Amino acid sequence: MSFFHADAMERLSPGATSAGANRSVILEFHVADAGAEYGRLDGLGVRWVKGPTTQPWGNRSIYVADSDGNLGNFYTKMG
Fold first, then answer.
1. pTM as predicted
2. How far from each other are the two terminal CA atoms of the chain, in whole angstroms?
3. Pick from 7, 14, 36, 70: most CB atoms within 10 A?
4. Which phi and psi (to 5°) does residue 32 adopt?
């Protein structure tokens, strides 16, 4: 897997991608402490979709969107 900026991809392969268009994929990253990651990332200009929240199934999650609208979830399994 790699991350590549949409503008660069468009220059290399015009019309090949439409970043974030289908909203059906979320990259998920298991982290030791989602709250600590929120604190670390908050000052970096991250576009938050959802701040630290405990999900009904028990995970503590933070949701972000990159500049192309792709979603990411940093989560910690609780208990």
1. 0.70
2. 30
3. 70
4. -65, -35
